[in-house]
Amino acid sequence: MPDPHRIFLKGTDNDFIVFVDEPEMWEKYKKDPSIDLVDFVSVFQVFVTSKGSLGDLDTASEAELANEFGSADVNKAIAHILKNGEDRNTVDVRNKELK
């Protein structure tokens, strides 16, 4: 299985990342948001970094999600990032511990 793609969104104070396993499905989702996220999202977490798409990752807190997306709901934040983010290509997450 290929490495997941990093979907990156530049935020106001932090940058946000969601990982997808199927970039083709992500492209389809942007045109048809009725596609189920479980079909292509790697992990249902939003990661935050202050150093761009290649910086160290931490799990975004509820406060960070609420400040950026107006809600602490992870699923809403993921949907927003998927609709508005950009693919920063593949990243090998298996060799890194994600917090």
TrEMBL record:
Pfam families: SBDS_N. Residues 5-91 form the Ribosome maturation protein SDO1/SBDS N-terminal domain. InterPro entries: Ribosome_mat_SBDS_N_sf, SDO1/SBDS_N. This is Ribosome maturation protein SDO1/SBDS N-terminal domain-containing protein.
